Amino acid sequence: MITKNLEMIFQSSTGRRSTIRVPNPKDGLTAAEVQTAMENIIAKDVFHVDGASLVNILGARIVTREVADLDISVS
Fold first, then answer.
1. pLDDT tens for the 75 residues of the chain, in order
2. Global pTM value
3. Distances from the Cα of 65 to the Cαs of 14, 24, 34, 41, 73, in angstroms?
4. CA 34 to chain centroid
């Protein structure tokens, strides 16, 4: 099974790093679209981490993970 997550990485007003993960981002998502979304999150003060606002964009990435189950018989 393959899963994909968009990870948007922010810095809070207390200096802490915070990551928002969005499962199954749309195919063809551009850096400009993600940056705009992150700027809106900051401008609208949507999320707080331990009471602190998100204030800076540190980065973003799409993480793809593949998991292969093994067929093991349990006695």
1. 999 999 999 999 999 999 999 999 999 999 999 999 999 999 999 999 999 999 999 999 999 999 999 999 887
2. 0.87
3. 31, 11, 20, 26, 25
4. 10
